[in-house]
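Example 3.2
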Amino acid sequence: ILLYGPPGTGKTMLAKAVAKESEANFILVNGPSLLSKWVGESEKAVREIFRKARLTAPTIMFFDEIDALVPRRSGNDDNKGGERVVNQMLTEMDGLESLNDVVVIAATNRPDIVDPALLRQGRFDRIILVPAPDEESRKKIFSINLIKMPTKGVTAEDLAQKTEGYVGADIEGVCREAAMIALREDVKAKEVTLQHFEAAMKVVRPSMDESVAEAYQELE
């Protein structure tokens, strides 16, 4: 499964939720961390991670920022190392050693630069857009963030209406900034008010605008 969408929409959190709900082992791989300047080391790291996944099955493997690990092959001599990593990923995902009870999930902000060979059936054959949250989703995200925050005159509905274009990470940032603003005004503050949230929205700006949304719709 390949999850793609704007930064901060919860792609990594989705993969963690899947692992918890399924009670499977979870291996988190940060794509760029596997890259090495030494010849053969990156491919070896990929092989080792898949070996561990097979040994600990049932396992969910999650590759974050996979576009850094398997970019589109260009045929240039300068990128031979990157091509070897792509080839190793292709071999591991549908090679002679089958991935029994191993699910591979990956996330990227740039699906257009992932090597096309990985996006065919049998590899990443489920390609899912994780969009920016709509108003109802923003309301639920605010509700979760407000559970442990003492507020006065603040509702998740009001905040959701005021935060068009905010993704999950932005909403978390608004709640954190509102609390900090309240504490800056009075270090003994017991409540966070709507004014604090409105001030926080001037500091934490939305990640999404129409041009970004349109770009991902075109990719879809």
